[in-house]
Write a structure and sequence with these properties.
The chain has 314 residues and is of the alpha/beta class. It is built from twelve helices and seven strands. Strand 1, helix 3 and strand 2 form a beta-alpha-beta unit. The N and C termini lie far apart (53 Å).
């Protein structure tokens, strides 16, 4: 692909590989406005579909970045779209990934087999794992990735055999956009470890947080549907995110958190700058019960002039 063509045309149109539950595509423009004007390394420890990351890419604001998530299949997918995109495309073209309800449930059932965990650990299977995730999220109800307590994907089929599961142009554009981007399977808590010089894992990735860096946290909603992974998510997990934001503040590193607006969340982050945005929740099979005008809090440890706030919780 011609570099100028990528920079001018493809970059402007690039989109996430998958729609992801809780994704920030509908508010990405506003998040970009609220982001620090200038930053160097960008970290997104709950990357999901990475809608905000791709918005920053489209705007030409990413010079270096690291995407991470605790979901291993998601990280494998990003790795494969970057390093083996043509193999992933070839798989998605094959009859096994033809859009039919029967194929959907056959492919979804793979993680019910006893050998699945070993299958996930075998590098040669990674392109197939990536194609599977793309296929299932494109064709599951509302593009939803949902896992039960056994870690098995359990979202139903969308009942639409006309849907296209393959966007070759976007996959190739995403592959190019991921050049030089760190992709790490890890809990969000690893961000707090980036200051530890003795941490060999992060030294190997040449990562160390600096005051000029920007970390965006988009954790699953608390007190809501949250079967994003088999581990679930609750207020004690969010308290760990708040603790990491405190550490970022102490170090002078930019931090932003997005979370559903609740009194508990406002109390937890009361020392920080908070802006409420109106969003729309589309995750319900009954359209009449989908939430319009839901409030989402954007929490920042810096002011309107990009100055890091001094206060933090005791």
């Amino acid at each position: 692909m011609n570099e100028a063509t990528y920079s001018i045309e493809t970059k402007a149109a690039i989109r996430p590989v998958n729609k992801w539950v809780g994704g920030k595509g509908q508010i990405a423009d506003r998040l970009s406005e609220l982001a620090p004007r200038n930053f160097e390394m960008y970290y997104e420890p709950f990357s999901g579909g990475a809608a905000f990351f791709f918005k920053l890419v489209r705007d030409g604001r990413i010079t270096a970045a690291c995407l991470s998530d605790i979901n291993p299949q998601l990280m494998i997918t990003l790795h494969m779209v970057h390093s083996k995109v043509e193999e992933v495309i070839s798989l998605l073209r094959s009859p096994i990934f033809k859009n039919t309800e029967e194929n959907y449930y056959i492919i979804r059932s793979w993680d019910r087999h006893d050998s699945w965990k070993e299958f996930l650990r075998t590098n040669s299977n990674f392109p197939l794992i990536a194609a599977r995730l793309i296929f299932l999220t494109k064709l599951s109800f509302n593009g939803l990735w949902r896992e039960n307590k056994k870690g098995q994907h359990n979202a139903p089929y969308c009942k639409d055999e006309t849907k296209n599961t393959l966007n070759e142009k976007n996959l190739r554009a995403v592959s190019k956009a991921l050049d030089g981007i760190g992709i790490v399977k890890a809990s969000h808590e690893w961000i707090a470890e980036l200051w530890e010089d003795e941490n060999e894992i992060w030294a190997m990735h040449n990562m160390a947080l600096c005051p000029t860096d920007f970390v965006y946290f988009d954790p699953p909603y608390v007190a809501s549907w949250n079967d994003y992974t088999s581990e679930g998510w609750n207020i004690s997990d969010l308290e760990k995110v708040a603790g990491t934001l405190d550490l970022l503040t102490d170090r002078g590193t930019y931090g932003m958190v997005s979370m559903k607006d609740t009194p508990e969340v406002r109390e937890l982050f009361k020392d920080y700058r908070i802006i409420a945005l109106k969003t729309h929740c589309r995750i319900n099979c009954d359209a009449s019960k989908r939430q319009n005008g839901m409030s989402e809090l954007i929490i920042m440890n810096y002011d309107e002039n990009d100055e890091i706030l001094n206060q933090r919780r005791e």
